[in-house]
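Blinded run. Sample ID left blank on purpose so nobody reads anything into the name before looking at the predicted structure. Input follows.
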Amino acid sequence: MRQLYKTIFYGFFITSLVFITAGCGIMGWLKGNEEAEVPEINPDPAYEVVDPVIRSGHFIRIGVTAAGKSEVSEVPREVSAKGEILMPYIGTVKCEGMTLQELQSKLEELYSQYIHDPQASVSFIYSPDGGGLSPWGTVLVMGEVARKGPVNIPPTRDLTVMKAIQMAGGTTSVAALSRVYVTRKVSETERKRIEVNLQTIGKHGDISKDITLLPDDVVFVPESIM
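Blinded prediction complete.
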């Protein structure tokens, strides 16, 4: 049974990743040192999970009630380029850089001037396929993939290298799945590179070896050397 699982998993993985051919544009600064020795670092380091903050371009659903009655209807509101939202009665509210809880408290304080004991509800509106900006960040997928560019991190924050490549349309027919690289920012002046062997992961069905990506990671799929 275990062998059957491995066979099915590997077949699905290879089929979904290698059937698309894409353009050849590659970021030189990533590719230039493909053959360099990759430092051994923890592929999934512990990091502090923090609440996402509101940014320009995010969509937020906001409603305000008082005594069980709706005072402000829950409708989607886009954060403007200035980091503001427009609300009934109180006008524009600066919210960029705030967490949802902070914005909720601010709205309740502002609406308390007009409504007795207001209760605000605030939530992000986000769909992975909706083309919007993820409040949980993005990763950049480059190299031999069908659609180079940013990939949104879902609310579950469980985006792996394999999933990111699939969301980028899969790999091209010349992709080197045995040496996919993840470049991760460690500090303002330091970046480390992690090598991921997706070929081995697929072959043995060991998805625990797939790395969970962090915001601003760069995934690079090099070309196979014939």
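Unblinding after everyone has recorded impressions. The helical segments are 2-17, 28-31, 100-111, 161-167, 198-204.
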